[in-house]
Amino acid sequence: MKRFTLACACTLACLTLSSTAAATQAGQWYGRAEIGHTDLEVAVGDLSADDTDTAYSLRIGHYFTPHVAMEGFYSILGDRSFGDAAYDMDAAGLGVVGKKNFGADNTGFFLAGRAGVQSVNSKLRSGELQLRERSTKPYFGVGAGYDFDHHNGVSLNYDYNKGDLYNADVTAQTLTLGYEYRF
Question: I need a surface site. Which of 38, 69, 72, 91 has the fewest CB within 10 A?
Answer without folding.
Answer: 72
